[in-house]
Amino acid sequence: MSLLEATAAGDRGDWAELAAARGRVAAEFAETGDRLWTAVATAPLAEVHLVRGDHDSAIAALERTVGLSAWSG
């Protein structure tokens, strides 16, 4: 459901809700233990943080994405 919420928030231009929904999407994939899809979900979250000017969170999300991606091969 969070992926749909993220899409709707993005369509509305609601960056705060988009960041929250993208965070939920990444957390939901992480709960399943699927590292590849957690990485796929975390990369767009980094972009949202970057657009909002939250560079520290953007860097942290990108580092997490790279770490998860490196594991997946």
Any overview of this molecule?
- The longest helix has 18 residues, at 15-32.
- The termini are far apart.
- Helix content is 88%, strand content 0%.
- It has 73 residues and is mostly helical.
- The protein has one domain (2-72): Alpha Horseshoe (Serine Threonine Protein Phosphatase 5, Tetratricopeptide repeat), CATH 1.25.40.
- Helix 3 (35-51) runs antiparallel to helix 4 (55-72).
Task: State the share of residues found in helices, binned by percent.
Answer: over 70%
Low-confidence spans: none
Class by SSE composition: mainly alpha
How is the CATH topology named? Serine Threonine Protein Phosphatase 5, Tetratricopeptide repeat
> Per the principal axes of the C-alpha atoms, what is the gross shape?
flat
CA-CA gap between termini: 28 Å
Number of domains: 1
The helix-strand sequence is: HHHH
CATH architecture verdict: Alpha Horseshoe
Largest sheet: none
Number of helices: 4
Determine Rg (CA atoms, Å): 12 Å
> DSSP strand (E) fraction?
under 5%
Total strand segments:
0
Q: Quickly name the level 1 CATH class.
A: Mainly Alpha
Average per-residue pLDDT, rounded, comes to: 90
What is shown here, in short?
The chain has 73 residues and is an all-alpha fold.
